[in-house]
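thought: fold this chain, then report.
action: predict
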Amino acid sequence: MESSLTTYTMEIEYYRPNSNSAEDNDASIYWLRVLSASLGIWPQKLVGDKKQWWKRLYYFMIIMHWYNTYLQVEFFFHNLGALKTMTEGLCSFCSISLTGIKIMRLNSFSNEINLLLERMRTHHFMQEIKLLKKGKNKPIFERIDQIMKDKWKEVKINLLLYTVSVGIVASSYSIFPAVINLINLFQGSSNPRRFVYKTYYRGMENLKFYSPLHEILFSSESLSGYTTFAGVIAFDGLYVLLTMHVITIFKSLKLVIKESTRSIFTDEEKQFYLHECIDHYTRAIMFMDDINKIFSPIFILQLFTSTSIICVIAFHASANALEKFLFQKVISIYLHSAEKSSQTVFSFPRIWCNKSTYALLRIAAPSQL
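observation:
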């Protein structure tokens, strides 16, 4: 009872973020917001009141995406005897199908994502941190501000590089074939016009290379290619953003733990810090549970999809020994993809396990408290 009364008489100070912190947040995730908004999957509460148009945009984009996925399935069954063509079509089908699932997943969890982003943007967890005015809190607050600044900088660089790299790959499917078609058109070449994907148009195979049908079908496939590009950025980029925020929470927890070990505090004050560390740790775990609920099933699916693609390419290469160089080039790309997928699936639990174990050991050390 005495220690409880002592706790209530303690002078407490709260962390308050810089006034421009929210603007830094918005600037760092610019490409994530733009690409997600273009698909209609950015949380509606963050884009305004035009919810009807927002839903229409999402349904239009996802319908076009799955329509072109269906055309690739038609192509797959129409070319069951051509191993090379089947391999190319199957790899493309797996990629855009997984992206379609990602887009639908983000849309179905729109309210939950909005809550996570709002907590991150307002620094909800950081403002819950309580420090005693008795200690030197200004350096701690400055250190938290620096951690925030470094986080936004790293998020901005990662999103930019990821957007550029995925954009280059996506352009090889759509922009490059469009340029080649224009060059052949101006040169009067008789080469058949190219399409974005390996698709089969039932009843229109003999007509799809003629204008204006070719331009319409090419634009439709390009739209599907764009949804694949934007969907990958929207899903993976959002995961990177939220993960970096969790790391920031644990870094701030480390600062609180370090502050609690100072000799100027009494046993009751150290007990107060112990409670604060446990509360902060609990809030971080709950935040991570919300993230895992949204992302974990898709990352497991992505891991198995990448592994399946590797197996298909390996089977194709084993049946075509003359394409050894092509196999080595393609397999290295997909091996890298599978490696990144596995790192994504398992890195997040490893991050919080290491941080939380370290925190608990420090908190529970009787010699420290």
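thought: worth noting. The beta strands are 12-14, 130-132.
final: tokens above.
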